[in-house]
Amino acid sequence: MTYDRFDVLSVACAAGLLLAAGFVGVSLGSPPSVPRVSSSSARAVISDLTRARAALDAGKTKKAIDELTVFVAANPDIAESHVLLAKAHASLGDYATAIREYKAAVVMDPEYADLNSDKYIGKGIKSVLSHGWAPCEITLTPERNDAARAAVKDDAAYLQRMLAGGCN
Amino acid sequence: METQLIETRPPSLQSVLDDAPGDTTTWLGRNQDLLLMIASGLAIGGLGVWLSFLGNPRNAGICISCFMENLAGALSLHGNARMEYVRPELLGFVLGAAAAAFLGREFRSEGGSSPVLRFLGGVILMVGCGIFMGCPIRMALRLGAGDFTAAAGLVGLVAGVWLGFEFLKRGFYLGEAAPMPLINGLMLPLLAVGILIALLFKSRILQFSASGPGAERAPLLIALGAGLLIGALAQRSRFCITGNIANFLAARDYKMASGVLGMLGAAVVMSLMTGSFHPGLQAQPGSHLAYGWSFLGMGLVGMTSVMIGGCPFRQVVLASQGSTDAAAAVLGMLGGGAIVQTWAIGSTNVGPTQAGEIATLVSIAFILVVGVLLRMRPSEQEA
Lengths: 168, 383
What we know:
The structure holds two protein chains of two kinds.
Chain A: H1 5-28, H2 39-57, H3 61-74, H4 79-91, H5 95-108, H6 122-140, H7 146-163
Helix pairs in contact in A: 2-3, 2-4, 3-4, 4-5, 5-6, 5-7, 6-7
Chain B: H1 3-8, H2 11-17, H3 27-30, H4 32-54, H5 64-74, H6 88-103, E1 110-111, H7 115-132, H8 136-144, H9 151-169, E2 178-179, H10 182-200, H11 220-237, H12 241-251, H13 254-274, H14 291-308, H15 312-320, H16 324-342, H17 354-373, H18 378-382
Antiparallel strand pairs in B: 1-2
Helix pairs in contact in B: 4-8, 4-11, 4-13, 5-16, 6-10, 6-11, 6-15, 7-14, 7-16, 7-17, 8-9, 8-13, 9-12, 9-14, 12-13, 14-17, 15-16
């Protein structure tokens, strides 16, 4: 069988792509270990979240943020804690952090952005996005922190896409 | 139409360039193929938007890859509870195309042309669609609704079709299909009938999403009717997005491009009529902003589609009219739908996943190698 330049080019491209896939694979690393959750620790999680929610409802926003920040550091994968943090930050006018926390929650649990779900919190997210965008820009502009502003914009754009629905 | 092209291409190109002969004595007869092609495009574009208006996910009223992932979920082939539903449209495509093929005496049970490679081709189509977030039809619906992020996919699709076409021109050939006993060709339509019965009676063998895209549904009978109509029209017209693009690239055949243009036009008009036209890059449903990966994903779909003889939708139609080779590709798409969900290959609104990026690169490499290995050199063609 004879091979021509087209064959060589195709095989070279294939080899290059496999190499690139290898690099992506190496950067993937090992999957994160999933901690085992005992019933006692689950009860503690519920208790902590209930306490933080109660503080938020009582208007003790700073206290709720403190409790939730400690809680999230220990339990980063619980979406509801991010929702509560977002609500707390939004009530203080810190819309950039609220947007970041809402994004974290929706990435973990898309049901929060699903109109058909009981968990839907789109109204709160939309409120932060619509009312919060101008203050968010003002907050970030004096510091000239373009990277931070770009990150907030990316997060806001993600939330907008999620709220728009579609198949994803 | 492109008699010259058809005669000088390897046999596998026939399926890309084939055309329905018509009665040439009347204007309607002479233009039957063109009218059917336009009607198919209008039906897919118009009904695609309308189905979204009636309840299907936004900008995804018709999407073969989404439907396959939904079907795989409904059959418990993956564990994403948000993607479980037997889309009646998909069953309609199969049954409508099969009925049209029988009525038009075009139902031919045949196969045996590299079925395993076609099965893998089906899996790879789902990988490409997963990275882009939609099949070529959904790409058109997204563009029609003003989602300009899909433009990268369109450019990628055309580039992929061009590359696939280069392989065909250089002798890529999957082998000849041979006639088979009728039951082989009937298997897919019969399977569709069985699943439709299970759907109508809400059988326990099927899963139904309570939330997420799988819970967004157009009324069952309307969805089924739309699927039947589109399936029948597409069978008669040989509608195929990648085939149309390949024809245009090969012969500058504007007639063949009319189907795709009709689909895009109908999608724009219906989107405007239903209030779902939102031009821009932001807040687009079921999209991401990783344009490079959208390009590669649709490029992979374009190249693979041309090499296995049709886009994902065309594979469904071909399988419905008796091609067991296309049925292998369709089953590959079903398996691919499960794999894409289980291995997190499909992109999300955040963007492509690392697993998806690896799968895309490896799939393109695989298709290139297969393309080289299955080229028939001039000496072999003469023999």
